[in-house]
Specification:
The protein is α/β, with parallel strands linked by helices and about 270 residues long. The chain has a single domain (about 1-265), classed as Carbon-nitrogen hydrolase (Nitrilase/N-carbamoyl-D-aminoacid amidohydrolase, 4-Layer Sandwich), CATH 3.60.110.10. Helices cover about 25% and strands about 30% of the residues. It has helices at about 15-30, 50-55, 65-75, 115-120, 150-155, 175-185, 260-265, and strands at about 1-5, 35, 80-85, 90-100, 100-110, 130, 135-140, 160-165, 185-190, 195-200, 200-205, 210-215, 220, 230-235. A 6-stranded mixed β-sheet has the order 5-4-3-2-1-14. A 6-stranded mixed β-sheet has the order 6-7-8-9-12-13, covered by helices on one side. The protein has a two-stranded antiparallel ribbon with strand order 10-11. Helix 5 (about 150-155) links the parallel strand 7 (about 135-140) and strand 8. The longest helix is centred in the N-terminal third of the chain and has 14 residues, at about 15-30. The protein is globular.
């Protein structure tokens, strides 16, 4: 199958424009699975929770999820994209997976970064893996990469491909994803955005460099730091199901879970 990352510059609050641009870029791609950036429909630099609420949508009833469903049906593909989700009086930094048959599932960001803690509620549903019939897909969002447990949990649940919408502002993720993929022997699609958002004295520059990484840690595609572009890679998702390193070592069977108690107990603050 062919997997891809769509890197572009959303404009804050211009949902119509952002959806139209994302839709046109999807239509031009020949990938079977595409990943859009985190919060691709709204932009990122919020100035209040009220502002985030005003740009939030229900999943799957909202316009963004419905637009992605329509495009996925027309193209016959799977798409992952990030948006602000409204659920009652709570809002989440979420991502949806849609298919040619419609809405598949969502993920609510577990590890909130910086001022996201002011605007969003922390994800409350944990991690999930979805079987597309061709491969098994897991989703995490941006800062989740900083916590090895995120990809390990998804990999142990059977994910072949980790879809990773992002709005990266630090330079470390792309290199770290090589290790994350190697230590779990999975594929990953890290889709970043580009551009700078400046609002009410706050300014963030996004680092681009969207990347597709293989189970052996090889970079299969990396976008530029400032360019809007779509990158793809031909893969065999079944390659992610062989966890053997050699005839004696298997990444998952060799885990000594009886000695990993500290991972479960956590740290006392």
């Amino acid at each position: 199958m062919k997997i891809g990352a769509i890197q572009f510059e959303p404009l804050f609050g211009e949902v119509d424009r952002n959806l139209e641009l994302a839709g046109s870029l999807i239509m031009k791609s020949d990938a079977d699975l595409l990943v859009l950036p985190e919060l691709f429909n709204t932009g990122y630099v919020f100035t209040s929770r009220e502002e985030a609420i005003s740009l939030s949508e229900q999943i799957p009833q909202g316009r963004t999820t419905q637009m992605l469903c329509d495009v996925a049906k027309e193209k016959g593909i799977f798409i992952v994209g990030g948006l602000v989700e409204k659920d009652g009086d709570r809002i989440f930094n979420s991502a949806v997976l849609v298919s040619p048959d419609g809405y598949v599932g969502r993920y609510r960001k577990v590890h909130l970064f910086f001022e996201e803690k002011l605007w969003f509620d922390p994800g409350d549903e944990g991690f999930s893996v979805y079987d597309t019939g061709v491969c098994k897909v897991g989703i995490m969002i941006c800062f989740d990469w900083f916590f090895p447990e995120s990809m390990r949990a998804l990999s142990l649940m059977g994910a072949d491909i980790i879809c990773h919408p992002a709005n990266l502002v630090m330079p470390f993720c792309q290199d770290a994803m090589r290790t994350r993929c190697l230590e779990n022997h999975v594929f990953a699609i890290t889709t970043n955005r580009v551009g700078t958002e400046s609002r009410e004295g706050k300014s963030l520059h996004f680092t681009g460099g969207s990347q597709i990484t293989g189970p052996d840690g090889r970079v299969l595609f990396r976008a530029g730091e400032d360019s809007e572009e779509t990158g793809t890679a031909e893969i065999d998702p079944m390659a992610a199901r062989d966890k053997k390193i050699n005839e004696y070592n298997d990444l998952f069977r060799d885990r000594r879970t009886n000695l990993y108690g500290a991972l479960l107990k956590g740290r006392n603050f």
